[in-house]
Each structure stands twice: as C-alpha cells, then as structure tokens.
Amino acid sequence: MLIMLIQITGIIVVLMALRTLLAQDRAERLLYLNAMSFGISAMIALYVGTAFGAVLATVYFVASTITSNAIAHTLDRVGEEMVIED
C-alpha cells in the first residue's frame, strides 16, 4: 500500500513537471512548481517512514516554499523594472 502511494505521488509530480514546462504564464509555472514541492515532500515522508522522514519532508517543503517565494518576488520586480514609460 505504501509503495502504491509513493508511485501515485510520483506520477502527480511528473504531471506537474510537464504542466510546468507547458505553462505560458509565470504565475502558473510557480503554482505548478509549488505543487511539485508538495509532492516531493510527501514522497520523502512516505519513503523514509520515520520521524526523521517527517523532519526531512518539512525542511524540504519550507526551503522550497521560500525559494518559490523568492523567485516570484524577483520576477515581479523584474517585470516592474521593464515597464517603459513614454
């Protein structure tokens, strides 16, 4: 049962990776990347299966969320700087 959950989560992560590649909008890409980080942290927690696995999954999720927010903030600032006023 546990292996099946890991496989299902892996399939979802792969689908989110494909949708990230096909997305046209930056915000949509970041949304899919965040969904991938949820899936990867779930896979870590399921695979390790101990309290340490839960700690690893939490650390990975927090770090990936901070990274996603930093990327989104940077892209927003770059978008604002590229506005050309007439």
Q: Calculate the mean pLDDT score and round it.
A: 82
**Unreliable stretches covering 5 or more consecutive residues:** none
Give the number of DSSP strands. 0
Count of distinct structural domains: 1
What would you report as the Rg, rounded to the nearest angstrom? 16 Å
Amount of helix: over 70%
The amount of beta strand, in percent, is under 5%
Largest sheet: none
Distance between the termini: 62 Å
The assigned structural class equals mainly alpha
The shape is elongated
**What are the secondary-structure elements, in order, as H or E?**
HHH
How many helices? The count is 3
Characterize the structure shown.
The chain has about 90 residues and is mainly α. It has one domain. Helix content is about 85%, strand content about 0%. The chain is built from 3 helices and no strands. The longest helix is centred in the C-terminal third of the chain and has 31 residues, at about 50-80. It is elongated. The N and C termini lie far apart (about 60 Å). The model has no long low-confidence stretch (mean pLDDT about 80). InterPro entries: DUF2109_membrane (IPR019214), Prd_NiFe_hyd_3_EhaC (IPR011316). To M.jannaschii MJ0526.1.
Concise account of the structure shown:
The chain is 87% helix and 0% strand. The chain has 86 residues and is mainly alpha-helical.
Give the SSE map.
Blueprint: H1 2-22, H2 26-48, H3 51-81
Helix pairs in contact: 1-2, 2-3
Observed structural traits:
single chain, 86 residues, mainly alpha, 0% strand, elongated
